Amino acid sequence: xxxxxxxxxxxxxxxxxxxxxxLLIPIYSAVADGLSISYDEAVFSSTIFIFCYAIGLxxxxxxxxxxSKKHVLFLGMIISALLTFxxxxxxxxxxxxxxxALQGLALGSFAPVAYAYCFDSFTPKIRTFIIAxxxxxxxxxxxxxQLLSSSxxxxxxxxxxxxxxxxxxxxxxxxxxxxxPKTSSKNLVSEKVNSTSKLVQPSIIVGLxxxxxxxxxFVSFYEELAQYxxxxxxxxxxxxxxxxxxTPLSLFSGKWLKKHxxxxxxxxxxxxxxxAFAFMLLTKQLFLITCLSIIFVSSIAVLIxxxxxxxxESAADKRATAISLYSFTLLTGASVxxxxxxxxxxxxxxxxxxxxxxxxxxxFFFLRRC
Length: 370
Description:
This protein is mainly alpha-helical. It is 85% helix and 0% strand.
């Protein structure tokens, strides 16, 4: 029961944290009007957040090795709550940019510390389950974040979503003391330094390559969808809801990974992702794109835990270090997603990721033959 409570806590926190990468996508126009700025300036606030979030992801891992991971998670949530409330109170472009940047830094405290906490606190079996739950939360946040902001915009206004998330972070910060057990202090720095060379092998490099572009494609797809079908907010709302149907498949990936090697599952997922995007290139009907998005989201939902397993098995006794590197790579890729969509249109974005997934497919195919 205790592990289940921790799993639920980690899932909710992952959703609330990662939602900030996506939540502005449906409300850029409303934010621009509320702050009296242009649409592009509103989009740039996500770029600022993403850059600072990536810095936070890099910074808090080493910090958590010197201090209690539980305390780092607590303080990260408290600071995130205050900064998120402040975003709702922003009435100028400069203040919104500043608080968005600081919020990104603070929210970067969750992912690396949560993963490290799992390795310090749980047996391998429970650890694998909770890490899968965290990754499911990160994936579902891509759609839940958009649904949250769309709903609050329809019912209240765009500022309400920041008040809501600020309250959630405040509640979650106190739950860290009631739910999370204390961890035994470990010094993993020397292990990371000594194991770096052992992580430089083709299977891990190819795995991290695909990891970087996995959530990036997810973020870019929904960014481009919002811009391509601008003015159809209600229809896009239902499109996101339908796409959410594909995310629970990640919970079944454990059973499939017991029956099939991760390389085989990765190749199947890449095939479906390439196929879904290729058919999207051939149609401009939102209904068909919505149906194909279910295939795309389902494939990513299974691909993510398969990649974790593949990279972990390739790293052998350096699994903890490899998965920490995987986590940073995954979320950094997601953070870069909006930048890609700002430079390319919908069709070119689809073509870009079809090309990348084809390269990934060929690479993994040769790894399987070796």
